[in-house]
């Protein structure tokens, strides 16, 4: 599962595809960045000596392995993006990636909340500590920016993704403008999601202190916020 976008996708799709073994390249049936990112994950998993199509066994492929390959997948995507100016002699394109990924081998779930920026907030990732299910918004907890969550049986682990976009300061100020402009409401200060009113047809959402009671209103509010962000930058 992928919630977000890969920056500079039209420029990195070919080199990403060229990096894959034939079985994973030929296995992709569509053209979305999510499909190709998953193919990259499978390719890197195989290069670790594991056949992704094999039976993972009673304990799975191992949480450390899945976590390591997920981090390598993100690093590889960033590497492709860094090569865009050199390969294509272009500049001024959007290269920020929102990479909220989730994979499982049937025993372990590995999820990320990540953005390839040190000044922007990633897309929302709000698991519930109560059985780690998305229940009501009352008991959601926010995963820190650029982190990886591992869930294995009853154990939940949280690790930082240590690269050039990571900040050790959890209070590091990040803007939610980019995530909001993509329709991925962030949990940064000023953008909050309120518990759903059982009497209304849609969740009541507060953005920058203004209540929005329908999805069309939220979309308009997100657009206005995105425009303000564009002006401020």
TrEMBL record:
Which is an annotated GO molecular function term of this record?
A: omega peptidase activity
Judging by the UniProt lineage, the source's domain of life is: Eukaryota
Q: Which GO terms describe its biological process?
A: glutathione catabolic process
Read off the Gene3D superfamilies from this record: Glutamine Phosphoribosylpyrophosphate, subunit 1, domain 1
Protein name as catalogued: Unnamed protein product
What InterPro entries is this protein classified in?
Gamma-glu_amide_hydrolase (IPR052373), Ntn_hydrolases_N (IPR029055)
Residue ranges annotated as coiled coil are none
Q: Which GO terms describe its cellular component?
A: cytoplasm; glutathione hydrolase complex
């Amino acid at each position: 599962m992928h919630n977000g976008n890969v920056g500079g996708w039209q420029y990195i799709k070919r080199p990403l595809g060229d990096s894959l073994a034939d079985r994973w390249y030929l296995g992709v049936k569509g053209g979305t960045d999510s499909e190709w990112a998953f193919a990259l994950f499978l390719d890197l998993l195989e290069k670790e000596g594991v056949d992704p199509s094999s039976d993972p066994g009673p304990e799975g492929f191992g949480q450390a392995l899945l976590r390591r390959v997920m981090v390598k997948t993100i690093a590889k995507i960033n590497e492709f993006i860094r090569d865009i100016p050199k390969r294509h002699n272009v500049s001024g394109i959007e290269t920020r990636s929102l990479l909220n990924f989730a994979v499982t081998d049937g025993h372990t779930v590995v999820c990320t909340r990540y953005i390839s920026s040190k000044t922007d907030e990633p897309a929302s990732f709000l698991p519930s500590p109560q059985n780690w299910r998305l229940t009501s918004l009352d008991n959601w907890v926010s995963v820190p920016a650029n982190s990886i969550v591992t869930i294995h049986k009853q154990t939940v682990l949280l690790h930082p993704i240590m690269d050039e976009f990571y900040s050790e300061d959890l209070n590091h100020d990040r803007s939610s403008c980019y995530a909001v402009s993509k329709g991925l409401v962030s949990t940064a200060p000023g953008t909050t999601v309120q518990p759903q009113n059982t009497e209304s047809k849609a969740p009541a959402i507060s953005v920058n202190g203004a209540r929005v009671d329908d999805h069309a209103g939220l979309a308009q509010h997100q657009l206005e916020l995105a425009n303000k962000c564009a002006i401020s930058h």
